[in-house]
């Protein structure tokens, strides 16, 4: 079972066992993302089509979510198989918590994965009409988020979302 997933630069050939997650399409870019997966004391590398945007790991959901400019991939932690993909996703950023919650944003809203299906997510109700939402990291139980208030450009806002209690902290 996958226990960790981290982004790496293109590895030297033969450094890791590699698995290529590629979907045939004439719309594919020439960019690639490499993710090093850890299983117990073993490592292997996944190669994903598109420029890196984010990765989320969840032991509780049994999935890794890899977001690139070309695709959103959902990988099964046990079989290493791709169980879902979405071409040219509208999603911009994602983050996962130590508890295995995975959040994703499309610039205007935030959604939380409920299970290993892309179709079953909860919408996180924002305290304002936001634009250009980005995840900036975790601090305890809080996700640090930056955004702009819709139609009020110029001042970037910082918001804190308590993901354990599902409430805004500011």
Descriptive overview:
With 170 residues, this protein is mainly beta. It has one domain (4-168). Helix content is 0%, strand content 58%. It has a four-stranded mixed β-sheet, with no helix packed on it. A four-stranded antiparallel β-sheet has the order 5-6-7-8, with no helix packed on it. Strands 9-10-11-12 form a four-stranded antiparallel β-sheet, with no helix packed on it. Strand 13 and strand 14 (142-149) form a beta hairpin. The chain starts with a strand and ends with a strand.
| Largest beta-sheet details | 4 strands, mixed
From the N-terminal CA to the C-terminal CA, the straight-line distance is 38 Å
| Radius of gyration from CA coordinates | 16 Å
Mean pLDDT across all residues, rounded?
Answer: 94
Jot down its keywords.
single chain, 170 residues, mainly beta, four-stranded mixed sheet, four-stranded antiparallel sheet, 16 strands, 0% helix, 58% strand, globular
Secondary structure topology:
Layout (H helix, E strand, L loop, with lengths): L3 E5 L8 E5 L10 E8 L2 E8 L2 E7 L4 E6 L2 E6 L5 E6 L5 E4 L5 E4 L4 E4 L7 E4 L5 E10 L2 E8 L2 E11 L4 E2 L2
Parallel strand pairs: 2-4
Antiparallel strand pairs: 1-3, 3-4, 5-6, 6-7, 7-8, 9-10, 10-11, 11-12, 13-14, 14-15, 15-16
